[in-house]
Automatic annotation (TrEMBL):
This is Inner membrane protein. Keywords: Membrane, Transmembrane, Transmembrane helix. It comes from the Bacteria. It comes from Cronobacter malonaticus. It holds the Pfam family YlaC. The chain crosses the membrane at residues 36-55, 61-79. InterPro entries: Memb_YlaC.
Length: 169
């Protein structure tokens, strides 16, 4: 494990603990706060369906099923799940992106991580210089930016540079 990977992993673990990102469902009424109109429309639609079912001779016997299904399905709106972040999710495009989103591109790293990287003797001078360039260009860095510092500093980078240089001649 490289120093940047270790620092990134430690930061991700700390964020998971601070924000209670543990993949567990928690009771919350945030859906009602964020979408009050949708919540009211949902209940109005249910009441309209209930009224139609009670008026119908063929559907009146299955009203209990409507009520049970509505209560069960409505219960999902009262739970939030904070997905846990993982180092291995960075730069991976699969079904986890549907669940977690591309958090590593949209979320800025804490300033403390940047300071730790700059102060670490185990991070190369080249990586620190690249970090400084990124900071002057972007001001705020994402988790992917820090990940790319480590990713672009291996043997693959020198191979790409050699190949690119030979094509230029």
């Amino acid at each position: 494990m490289t120093e940047i990977q270790r620092l990134l992993t430690a930061t991700i673990d700390r964020l998971n603990k601070e924000e209670k990102r543990d993949n567990r469902p928690r009771f919350s009424i945030s859906f009602i706060r964020k979408h009050p109109g949708l919540f009211i429309a949902m209940y109005l639609g249910w009441l309209a369906t209930l009224a139609v079912m009670l008026q119908s001779e063929t559907l009146a016997g299955s009203v209990w099923l409507l009520v049970v299904l509505f209560v069960l399905l409505n219960g999902f709106f009262f739970f939030d799940v904070n997905p846990r972040y993982h180092y291995d999710d960075i730069d991976v495009l699969d079904l986890r992106v549907c669940y977690n989103g591309e958090w590593y591109n949209t979320r800025d790293v804490p300033q403390s991580l940047i300071e730790e990287i700059q102060a670490s003797p185990r991070v190369s001078a080249e990586q620190k210089a690249q970090l400084e360039k990124m900071l002057t260009r972007k001001k705020a860095l994402s988790f992917y930016d820090i990940y790319s510092l480590d990713k672009n500093n291996g043997p693959a980078r020198s191979l790409v540079n050699t190949t690119t240089a030979s094509r230029a001649h």
